[in-house]
Amino acid sequence: MLFQTAAAVAGGAAPHPLSGTAADWVWALPLLPLLGFVLNGALAIFGSAKAGPADPSAGSHDGPDAAHGVPGGNGQDDGAHADAAHAVPSQRHPYAWLVSVIGPLVVIAAFALACMICVAMIAAQPTTPFIQRYFSWMPVGDLSIDAAFQLDQLSMVIVLVITGVGALIHIFSVGYMRDDPGYPRYFSYLNLFVFFMLVLVLGANLPVTFVGWEGVGLCSYLLIGFWFSDRANADAGKKAFIANRVGDFGFMIAMFLLFANIGTLQYTEIAAAAPAALPAGGALVTTVCLFLLLGCTGKSAQIPLYVWLPDAMAGPTPVSALIHAATMVTAGVYLVVRTSMLFSIAPAASLTVCVIGAVTALFAATIGLKQWDIKKVLAYSTISQLGFMFVAVGAGAYVAGIFHLVTHAFFKALLFLGAGSVIYAMHAAYHETHSHEDAQDMRNMGGLRTAMPVTWILMWIATLAIAGVPLFAGFFSKDEILGTVFARAQGSALSDASWLGIPGGALLYGVYGICLVAAFLTAVYMTRLMLYTFHGPNRTGDAEHSLLREAPAVMTLPLVVLGVLSAAGGFLNDPSFLPIAPADMLGRWLEPVVGPATQQITRGGPAEADPRLSAILATVASVVALAGILVALLRLKPAALRPAREPQPAESKVESLLSHKYYVDEAYDRAIVTPTVVFSRNILWRGVDGLIDGLVNLTALISRWLGDSGSAAQTGETGTYAWALVLGVVIVLGTVALRI
Amino acid sequence: MLADALFFSAVLFAIGVVGVLTRRNAIIIFMSVELMLNAVNLTFVAFAQVYGYAGQVFVVFVMTVAAAEAAVGLAIIISIFRHRHTVNLTDINLLKG
Amino acid sequence: MRELLLSAGYDHWILTVLLVVPVLGALVVWIGASALESGGGTDAAGTPPGTAAAARFARWVALLTFVAEFVLSVGLWWSFDPSIDGWQSLISVPWITTWRVNYTLGVDGIAVVLILLTTLLMPLTVMGSWTSVREKVPTFYALMLILTTGMIGVFVSLDLFLFYVMWEVMLVPMYFIIGIWGGERRIYASIKFFIYTMIGSFLMLVAILYVGFHVGGTAAGQAPDFSYPDLLARLRVTPIAARWLFGAFFLAFAIKVPMFPFHTWLPDAHVEAPTAGSVILAGIMLKMGTFGFLRFAAPLFPSAALDPGIRAIILGLAVTGVLYGALVALVQPDFKKLVAYSSVSHLGFVMLGIFAFTQQSVQGAILVMLNHGISTGALFLLIGMIYERTHTRQISDYGGIARVVPLFSTLLTFVALSSIGLPGTNGFVGEFLVLIGSFRTVPYHAMLATVGVIFAAAYLLWAIQRILFNSLDKPRNAALRDLNWRELALMAPLVACIIWLGVYPAPILRRTDHAAAAFVQEVEHGSGTQRPSSRVAYAPGARP
Predict the structure, then answer these.
(1) How far apart are the CA of B90 and the nearest CA of chain A, in angstroms?
(2) Range of the domain at A375
(3) How many distinct structural domains can be found in chain B?
(4) Hey, which of A32, A118, A727, B24 would disulfide with A106, CB 3.0 to 4.6 Å?
(5) A231/C435 Cβ within 8 A
(6) Is A437 part of a structural domain of the chain?
(7) A489 and A563, same structural domain?
(8) Cα(C468)–Cα(C409) distance, integer angstroms
(9) Tell me: the pLDDT tens digits for A484-510?
(10) Residue C529 burial by CB count (10 A; 0-12/13-18/19+): exposed, middle or buried?
(11) Which subunits sit against C, judged by 3+ Cβ pairs under 8 A?
(12) A543 with A658, same domain?
């Protein structure tokens, strides 16, 4: 055995069932991408030293996404001026071929390893987490934080998603980023992201998870600002990092509270100590959970911290697919499930999770209705879907939440990569004609189905999946969420609790209703996206129309794989009323992890709604989804659209409110950002600091004034001094004489 | 006798003081200082008549110091004159603060 | 290794040698350089070739001396036994016998760590000044060497009188370094720095004398004693006197830290100082203040340090410093000033950690001291490198240079992230420990300080965005040279430390464990009549 393996709770001296299997190699999971990061990073630096700014022929070539912004957003190792963007033929990075091997390979290897571990896990059926302890990270007094990984059924599922979907997106990136001068830098960041994401998921205690938590935030920052020469991209990266930091504040406070009250930050120990140390439903555990929730809203882009995610679309599209759809943004959902032993004994906090999720789901879906940028639609769709996951984990439907996380990773990655493939084609066409049109604006698309049939079909699969059309992946997961919320409203620990005076049961029915509306809107805006992009007449431009091409195979193949998963992924957790696949696989798989918490919420009752009710609710949900698609098909007229370069019809007030995203960004700017800067500059710096420094300098001035006035007595004339002397003598002698 | 001598030296000293205070010319002031010194010498000698010869010893000391002082003082005055072409003390205020 | 060093009597002579080597180096620089300068004559161009030779000589002698010093102090790191309480490598020789002032040196874990930081940063600052200091080169390096003696002296002195002497020895070379090689307003900055610090240290001198002469009480005929271990064991002062004395020490140390209302000398000094000055000032000299609190102010006067009112003021100022420094840093147009205010913020964390009096927070505070030395030192070195090329510190004069100078940009981003406290880098571990420890005793202060972590991300990310990213709109920046081998070599150890301390800080934590525990114990239990200090002074060779 390579590392000391601690059996978790009741294991005692007996070895963990997973020790001695492939699971002993769990440390290698994150190390593989880290190796990729180091190698690709070295190539990025070494390559830039070789073919750096000295080479005047090194042309600059924008990544496809950069076309809508200022031209010339290119890699760091490109010295040529921005205006050359379309003038010089693109030149690949000298080590691109090596990077194309290393970058995807390490993630594929990690995926293979994860599959082996999963097989071992299926065989071993462990009931306790498998913990590998490497070294003592922060041993200080009674605080002991280990660098340790924890492998259980929950982390296994997410690891498979990260490495699997991650590998597909890496492969896609080989084609998508092909001509970018920052190619090695891109892959090193992407590998680093996978590393941190795996650390996040595998961490055996909150601080190790926090390393991954902030690490993925860093990678997100670096990748959003990948084309940093464009100010908007750099701004977006910074905004993402800072919004996440606000969330991390909550995460940290939660850790402090837990340590101050339980004295440990390790998941297994928290689970063991929490019921005794934290009174169920008490203020303390609720506070801890609310602070954790703040962290989750930051990472998972929920109200009130969702504002960074739409801006994050400034990054390359595969990054949006991997980080801002499939993996990183679901970390908040993962954390709630991971700490479900706390959330389950804090009903008020759980209901808050539910409410935030529901409101976010509806709110983001409405904004998604009026966006023109294809990636922005998908971004708001992601926020909305994350809202669904929050509803699930808030209602104690942990399995449903993770289930939706997995299926969402499939179909949203597919949607983003499909959009990437569309943007790639659009950009290539506009590049060819040296046009500066926006390659991401749906008003410039239309009728792409003839040019890119593969993408078209696959995108429709994903759309049907996300809308919740029966038998596609999203149907099962979304349906399970809705069904469980309904069941929880009927009777559970949550329905008996109250939230700000509202009875939990009524609140959950309300949440269910909101979710139905959001599901309807999801179907509408996704159909709208498909109609405007692929159907109707083409609006790209006369010259460009014939230049639109399907992406190369290295990009379409990952799409096909994701398409299969989006279509069939739902059978992972087949409901019992629909006997097609083995029923409830995921639920039984996750039982050892979330079972106790679910029992706490249901008070020992069944985890899901009964099959008959489920079937009814599923029918309702399907009808809603189909109605959404139908409404969109009937009401929207792609033929009436005008290209973005032409004047647009006036918007109604509601439309304008939606297309401006309810002016939330502007409000945050006016309420928080600007006042902070103005206050710091005018009150603190110019005011307080000036005052303090003025006081310091004032003492100097006073001393100087005293000295000056003293020196005025020094006339320099001996006569004066003589007079003073005589006067002094007379006074002294006089006083002495008069005294005596 | 003692009283007369003391009165005389007091008058001499006062004249010296007035000279130092009122005159501008460095040489005159210098001479006034000498006058004051000699007034003190006279006092010493006068007291020596009553209290023994220690006073006379002091006079010798004072005269020696005065001679040295005169030499140094005159040298300073001459060098001032060389630099500034005046010995008028109101024109010389290098020590002004 | 440890046995080998001890068998050579290492712990008998190491501390003295650490003090003497830089002075010897300074002498060699001075004598050698004057010989070279006078021997050189003048060539046709008017520049005396002797001056260039002297400069080269001074640089190399200083670098080699500092490297030797570093190697010696690494030996100290090994010879230090983290598993026992008390002072190690102790040495004591009578100095002023009538006042019983001794030349007493000794280290605990805190001192060892800070000495290592000092000896690590000094050779790097020499390399950083290699080409940027052009005037009076030998004097510059001689002053740096003497400064090092003063700084190490502060860390190793176990006699209050000796400590004071070293404290002042440190001040003078820095005054000249800022005043001669500084920027435009160097005279103003250096005088402000000198006088401000001096006011505090004179008050401290008064307090030291009072303490030394009243060890055994205020009755007449008491023998004076300035030995710190003796004072810890024997000092009895009335609570009122303790408050005044603590106040005097507080002022001296708070100015040095600098704590919130006493900080205004720092931005001026940082901005005007040459790169080496800024690095040493931020990296090492600011730690003198917090080190003083840990070593002297709080353990000597625990009743004052634990006084609720006094503690509330200090904690309040610490948290104010964290937030205030961060917010003011946000709006600085000058990058050096921004880093100066960020120092106010970081040192606020240290003060919070120290005065929260828990094992975690104190060890965290020590780590933050170390991390701040490394990260801020690295930031100033990087600023110095780019300043040497452009001669501007204004953030608005840059923009988009990441395309031109990728190595510089990578390093600056990395160092900024460590300063932000990204987990996995050193910055996180220190701040996390301070906050988690403080949260146990002063939760609301800790929460407010955690808000400072958000602002830290805001001001540094905004600054590096405006320097490195956005569009390259200043034509003159398009021709910047990237870092050369010397500059990369001097950054490499700092980068290594940033990762090492972030991933595996246990060696540091192990060494500071006993000292921090002793500190907490002395303060918490020393306020009564009993002083069960665990810090027994071990004579060398007589260890258990």
Answers:
(1) 6
(2) 346-399+431-646
(3) 1
(4) A32
(5) no
(6) yes
(7) yes
(8) 6
(9) 999 999 888 888 888 888 898 899 999
(10) exposed
(11) A
(12) no
